Give the backbone structure.
Amino acid sequence: MARYTGPKTRIARKFGEPIFGPDKYLSRRNFPPGQHGNNRKRKTSEYGVQLREKQKAKYTYGVLEKQFRNLFAKAERAKGITGEILLQLLEGRLDNIVYRLGIARTRAAARQLVSHRHITVDGKVVNIPSYAVKPGQIVAVRERSKSLEVIADSLAGFNHSKYPWLEWDESTKAGKLLYVPERADIPENIKEHLIVELYSK
């Protein structure tokens, strides 16, 4: 399956929450899309609930199935709580760090900035959105890209204190990953234990 490029509100309505960011239409139509979306009272199976949670995580972070499976396998091999480590690996992706730093308004926009070589890590251009950023590394806007209107608009008024594991320097347009966030710090409404249960079958 290729990365989803269709209407984002349709997916947000499917999950009943703004997984791609603020959505003015979701508040008016907070029920599944489709002709009978408002009348569906179908009971979801245990497998369906688990699958839905995995799909929600994939759509939220913009990760494809194969990438997601590889990240889960990596989380499973690591010491600690598998579900929590999975979310930490997703949070550590370069496109997500660019989004959390406010350089882009959405993860999709962040992915595009990275792919178009506007972002550096420790002074070197990195154009791989899935690049795993490590604590201590500095993610910055490339010098010749600092004047881009889309970046300036995104950063205007952005509250960097929301994410204490990241440190932002406005003068250099650079951010530093201070530490890997704990599960309680990660704001995404994802029940990671359901994903672990799904892959454990």
Notes: The mean pLDDT is 87.
